[in-house]
Amino acid sequence: MAASIEGPRLRSRHVELQPVSPQHYEMLYRLHAQDEIGFRWRFRGETPSPDRFIATLWEGVLAQFVVSQNKTNTGVGLVTTYGVNLRDQYAHIAFVTSPEYVGTGLTLEGLALFVDYLFRLWPLRKLYAEAVEYNYSQFSRGSNRYFKREGILRDQLHYAARYWDVHVLALYRRDWERIRPLMYRTLLDDRG
Question: What is the CATH number of the domain that holds 25?
Fold first, then answer.
């Protein structure tokens, strides 16, 4: 008798992960150009052409999804993994949230689905995230529970007439497997 295998979930109580497609490009381009986001995200204030934006959106990416709110089917953010090294079993993850959804937890719920997706499908032992000092305070409380700080790159990035540190964080598979049941009970269970 074959074992029953549960695939990764792309939907939770409040959000769904939708594979990035051309229908999302305009929303993602507008997101990167918003005052509250532009300097924090991938281009750090640069305004690439739409064609270059789309090409860069896919550079080195293993998987990425638009986090969409279930009730409205509105894109609230993006989760992505890049810089994958299957030999040493790690990858980098990043996420961005539309300003009107900051603080709602919707993108973080999507990120939890995404982390589970990555650990279920690939033999990754850890996921790295980098947080510039001016972004780190937004999620440092929760990050200490789930992520281990593996280093700080001192005075790494220039913004607003000064240099900022970059925090290098890692989420280990063993830690995810420990907290996954709690995540599913509190965030991801769409039956409740």
Answer: 3.40.630.30
